[in-house]
Amino acid sequence: MEQKKLFELAANEVFEGYVLLRSFNLKTGQTGKNYIDVTVTDAFSEMNAKIWDYQEEKHSQFKANMLVKLRGTVVAWQNSLQMRVERIRLAEPSDPVHIEDFVPSAPMTGEVMLAMVEAFIKRIRQDDIRFLVQHLVTKYKDRLLYWPAAQANHHSLRGGLLYHTSTMLRGAEAMCAIYTQLNPDYLYAGVILHDLEKINEMDSTELGIVSDYTRNGLLLGHIVQGAISIAEAGKEVGADEQTIVLLEHMLISHHYEPEFGAIRRPMFPEAEMLHYLDMIDARMFDFDKALAEVQPGGFTDKQWLLHNRRLYKIK
Amino acid sequence: MEQKKLFELAANEVFEGYVLLRSFNLKTGQTGKNYIDVTVTDAFSEMNAKIWDYQEEKHSQFKANMLVKLRGTVVAWQNSLQMRVERIRLAEPSDPVHIEDFVPSAPMTGEVMLAMVEAFIKRIRQDDIRFLVQHLVTKYKDRLLYWPAAQANHHSLRGGLLYHTSTMLRGAEAMCAIYTQLNPDYLYAGVILHDLEKINEMDSTELGIVSDYTRNGLLLGHIVQGAISIAEAGKEVGADEQTIVLLEHMLISHHYEPEFGAIRRPMFPEAEMLHYLDMIDARMFDFDKALAEVQPGGFTDKQWLLHNRRLYKIK
Amino acid sequence: MEQKKLFELAANEVFEGYVLLRSFNLKTGQTGKNYIDVTVTDAFSEMNAKIWDYQEEKHSQFKANMLVKLRGTVVAWQNSLQMRVERIRLAEPSDPVHIEDFVPSAPMTGEVMLAMVEAFIKRIRQDDIRFLVQHLVTKYKDRLLYWPAAQANHHSLRGGLLYHTSTMLRGAEAMCAIYTQLNPDYLYAGVILHDLEKINEMDSTELGIVSDYTRNGLLLGHIVQGAISIAEAGKEVGADEQTIVLLEHMLISHHYEPEFGAIRRPMFPEAEMLHYLDMIDARMFDFDKALAEVQPGGFTDKQWLLHNRRLYKIK
Amino acid sequence: MEQKKLFELAANEVFEGYVLLRSFNLKTGQTGKNYIDVTVTDAFSEMNAKIWDYQEEKHSQFKANMLVKLRGTVVAWQNSLQMRVERIRLAEPSDPVHIEDFVPSAPMTGEVMLAMVEAFIKRIRQDDIRFLVQHLVTKYKDRLLYWPAAQANHHSLRGGLLYHTSTMLRGAEAMCAIYTQLNPDYLYAGVILHDLEKINEMDSTELGIVSDYTRNGLLLGHIVQGAISIAEAGKEVGADEQTIVLLEHMLISHHYEPEFGAIRRPMFPEAEMLHYLDMIDARMFDFDKALAEVQPGGFTDKQWLLHNRRLYKIK
Amino acid sequence: MEQKKLFELAANEVFEGYVLLRSFNLKTGQTGKNYIDVTVTDAFSEMNAKIWDYQEEKHSQFKANMLVKLRGTVVAWQNSLQMRVERIRLAEPSDPVHIEDFVPSAPMTGEVMLAMVEAFIKRIRQDDIRFLVQHLVTKYKDRLLYWPAAQANHHSLRGGLLYHTSTMLRGAEAMCAIYTQLNPDYLYAGVILHDLEKINEMDSTELGIVSDYTRNGLLLGHIVQGAISIAEAGKEVGADEQTIVLLEHMLISHHYEPEFGAIRRPMFPEAEMLHYLDMIDARMFDFDKALAEVQPGGFTDKQWLLHNRRLYKIK
Amino acid sequence: MEQKKLFELAANEVFEGYVLLRSFNLKTGQTGKNYIDVTVTDAFSEMNAKIWDYQEEKHSQFKANMLVKLRGTVVAWQNSLQMRVERIRLAEPSDPVHIEDFVPSAPMTGEVMLAMVEAFIKRIRQDDIRFLVQHLVTKYKDRLLYWPAAQANHHSLRGGLLYHTSTMLRGAEAMCAIYTQLNPDYLYAGVILHDLEKINEMDSTELGIVSDYTRNGLLLGHIVQGAISIAEAGKEVGADEQTIVLLEHMLISHHYEPEFGAIRRPMFPEAEMLHYLDMIDARMFDFDKALAEVQPGGFTDKQWLLHNRRLYKIK
Predict the structure, then answer these.
(1) Which residue in chain E is spatially nearest to B218 when comparing CA positions?
(2) ipTM value for the complex
(3) Residue B176 to chain C, least CA–CA distance (Å)
(4) Maximum distance among all Cα pairs of chain A, rounded to whole angstroms
């Protein structure tokens, strides 16, 4: 995608290129005339824009989070730059742009990661575990392709939920090879299910951006929703009672500490391991993200989510 | 029931009366002969007893927790008294004894308390709440009549679960009259459901004595089991989604503090009130029980379950 | 009170009506001329106002928290509206306004609530308890009529202290009916005395607005002040030593947790119950207040005083 | 005091000497005959003793904690040695023994330590502080001479309360010399008053052995009792209100942490310093006591009262 | 090793076989004669034994933790069995027994595990890290072959320290493959060094049994000793200052939480990962050990070291 | 130093006097011309200043934290006053100003305080302790003369580290006189060494102003650095192993609580005392500083570093 960066534009310059609509709101000016107030981004920075000649039939098709092609002139207004939109149209499949270029995204496509997860499901040998997991993954397939793992914390990426899951599966595979007492069936199932109900805990756009928590998310959370969901799926696929209870236990214990939402601490080895694989994947992500912004030999600012640590980047 | 108390017996005295079998175990003596080792209680104290002339056809019908009529002679053996059983038969309906006389029991019969609970259910105006609650109470009716509320703590009585529930309902009624913003439908439902899954969390004899926690009780606990159970019942009776979620929330928040098993803190007034009614009823029971053993003006020993407090009995 | 709301006023409009003076400060303008800077409120919103023609003899009688009748013209100044005061006089008894209309107040008058409290005092059967409680209530009678229960938290209303106390007394009455082991004499006394020394802990205007904590309030707090006050009153009325010690204990234990200022945890049932009645009344107030601002089916913002919970309003 | 140590006695030996009666209880033997079961100590070890020829007129004058002269024969009984008492009489003033030789005692007499404390009181320059402190010390003078500072922890010695107080006064004096911003009047007063109400918190024999906590001690504790006591004394001597409040504040803040009973943290420098002087004196005592039992280069067992530390004795 | 198990022996039976001396103490009987009191074990159970004909020249060569061949007769004494030793000699290299058969040991020999560790050291690419690690491993080589990782907790096995280390290295290798941002040099070094100073923290016999903590272990602990040891080794091999500081940081942060002895929380990804690998290996060991004692479908007792959890063994 | 205070200056006034350069940065104006933006202070307030006629040869010698003589004219610009610098030169030894007048400084010179510390070193009787301490003090002598004890908290003064140390030594001396079981050698050594490595933990200018923590300070902290430093110095001077270990232990235990960085709690009396002396000196400083800003009878604002206490200044 070859186009001028928004932050390179100067007053009076004309811009033409693809941008993502962060917000798109109809407003009424002091003179009573309608116009549209827009925030656009090209993934590097944001800029305010205005569509002064609002026409309902023409502009009502647009809304926030759409990818559009746009032409406009940059104007200086009150110490900052603003774009006066002259042309706007939706991006089309044939356009040389991808949504991943405009929002923080997992390094693989949802389809690829889903295929990885499903390959692990196939490796689950115990039928009822495999049926139960497949049942739930199939149920949420469409949203899984882009769902993030969080609103703001680790893996708050487009596709972050699958990315977190599929990376943890690799860790699970490695640990089963070292600690042969582990039953991979339960560990793989636990990894795949542990955050799955985040799909009902939060509302996400297709861009993987969480607008808010849902009512059920706030009142119950993905852990309890997850246990209920396993209970239902278990009944559906006719799973053994032990199978259902153990998977529910993995859900309700994977946060480990009561103050982080665990109702039980893990009571069998696969549940214990699930917790550590989850922590490792979250922390490797967080460290990576925080350290991306410092030079070798330097320290980050205090990271609130990491006990206020300042992280060091090795020279 | 007029019979000599066990603790009044002296060596060589003959006892005849009703006792509860606490334990009843076949053993083999040093000479290779079988005998039965029994612990009997008359609710005031326990005594060891032996059936030396074991006969399978005659004695295999007895087991722990049965109420029997027994005749025997008291013998002194190694600094303590023991009973040599001479006759034993099961208590019969026509015998002038009741199980409540031998085990700690709620002050009302299960039937009376259940009727009280059901009267409250009828007062729930919103149909789906009422249907859901009635569905679960009906499901557990038989066990509810004698189920205790705990293995060792508050309301570890025969019928303790219903006693705890029905007393809390009276508190709920009073609070709804004072705090008129409360919706009695949710509060009554929450009270009735909050501990109901203790029926699957623990195994209890019909005497209301808990032998142990169940597998599901240990791995999930009555809170999560309760939420799942509400989800299932809600589907069964076709309850509104909000209804189900709010009742589930009441379950998972009623312990209030994460370290006591709460997954959420209460997020609407009825859930908040449920917690306090639960605490009050538990604490009034605990104080009463602890103070029963001291004289006015005296202090109890340190009560481990009450932050090691020593309680005072007002003169 | 029929008058235009302050937030309905437009520039150049003339306002005439009753307002409360939130602040009233003499200032000196850049030209060296004195004027008065005022903040007025009609309970719905606030507006800044100026008295440009300051005259000491005329204006020195006014100060913050007075109710006045005022006439002025609205002027626009630097993006906001301001009132130029033309006439101002103190509200008089014959004016059709009440202070309760201008500040957050308990839903009953202080006189009515005090009568309720005194009715409960009469029901205390044990003489020395009744004398002691009456002694202290009489001592603080005047201030009790309008004193709030807090600077910012629960029951920070004009008359909030009596409102909190009288509502708790109704709860106490209900609980004594259910838990008959409770001695109502101690419970009623405890309820009435538990926060009474807030009268010396904070300074409040007659509007029930707390300006600050007092020296003694900061160095000792109402709990210790309360215990000392009971000691003195007990001596005064010749109370039995046990009576005094038990009431003192109720004071120093009613916050329950050391980190909230409790010196002992409650050691008899009436002290235990006092704590829960206090919590319930505070929490019902807090929930009510927070939920007043949201629509059914909606959530409040995070409530800092309630462990950062977001509360839900049932549809 | 030249007499054989109890632990040196062998079976059949005759003992004659002074011992302290730890316990002295009338019992009835299996044959129905009365005898007295005694525990005696010579400060080095304890031994059980029996008075078989119980005579009421002769033996009813004795009770626990008395110092007696005793003659008896050592007999072996069930793997241990026991003394058969042949003669017993109360120790008399002319006997060459002192109570301090038999119970753990402060290294100075109560009279000497009290004189030290009173010398410090005289150095308090502000009249009302000095009056108030003197008033309370005078009130408790008699018991102060032998009162311990605790039942089991630091300074659980005969005279331990005065020992703790007078040592802290020396620390206070030193600190006032280094930190000249400190007002010695308040610091000395705070030191003298801080634990004074332990006199009403516990019951102690004249041997400085605490039998139990009192009702008021359990329900209120010495901190709250102390604040009340200062309030009363302040009124008595007509102290300034600030003086009273500050001394009360020192009392209620000297334990520093809420979980150790502090109601406020110290809010002025003298209160802050009081806490540290108290901690230092307690800890120096505890370390000394624990280390007395180990060899240079060795470690003590885990000290439960010191966060389970094992202490090291420097070689 | 074909010999009768100690727990299979009956009174009067003659035993001949190899046993480990758990204790071996010279005592003096009531008659004044010397004998030796021994505890022997064959790894399945322990038995008390006596050598009644003590002869200094013959028996002074034996002491606890030696492997011996022994013949004796089983005698019944006071409700338990005891062995009267008739012959005893040290086990010789040619005897068909190994020390590993008598004490809990790692599943590989020390030599094999050390070779694994050294293979990882060779894979460290950065010279100064490799030199430093090799320097310390070489220094402790001899003791490493049998040193346990703890006195009582996880990996309290003969060779447990190397077993813990080498298993963690396999985990480190797997994690570096998944999280490619990790620098294996630091991670491998951190794993190898993290517990190395346990060699100076505790005293262990060659059987891998810890008798006690050392003075330095108690006063400093292996974490601080480890940091000092890295500082010294770093100087020795001329390591870069950053290298030394980062390895020291890994040591002082690997316990993660201050209350478990961490001085810093991990501040770079390799230090973070080290902590989780350590936790995983410890927990897999603990779960395995605890679950070894229960049947499928059963629960262990409460595990004190695992937050009192009862663990479940999957059916 | 007689010169007009910066805060007394009015627009258009000419200032001449000594100021400290807080910052001194070359900037480029909108017209492309270079100028210098300066912040100056006279210890009472700060003022922005500009050097418009920037000349490299003339101005490149200046930088932040230098003391200069300056002449300039005060100009009003955007609601605030600014100085246009006309002349600037470095302060010279002959100028009548001292750096202590411009930055918060200890009340004694570094030289005097160092002499005090060295006098205490001489009083250490045990050779290896004295050698070790002297070795480290000598090593850091130059920086000690001005080094602060903190970036923002207690003793963040020029010379604060020595001030804190030397005051604590006086406390140590007093405590050794009262608690004669203390070994002054260890206590004095512990006091002198306890914060010494703050010299490598933070970077300080010669003004005693900390710019930031160092890499080693962030990754290790002064406690671990201190232990390592003692290990090295101990080797250097040939100290006894016990000496080294005990001093290291004092370092790692002096923060007492794990959450404040203590690795061990103090395990011998001198280590215990060190902690309290440290706390006392820090707290006396903090109280003094906070109370400096209030009137007698008044309260400070909440002090975040002192558990949010509001401190009271006695009337």
Answers:
(1) E310
(2) 0.87
(3) 10
(4) 74
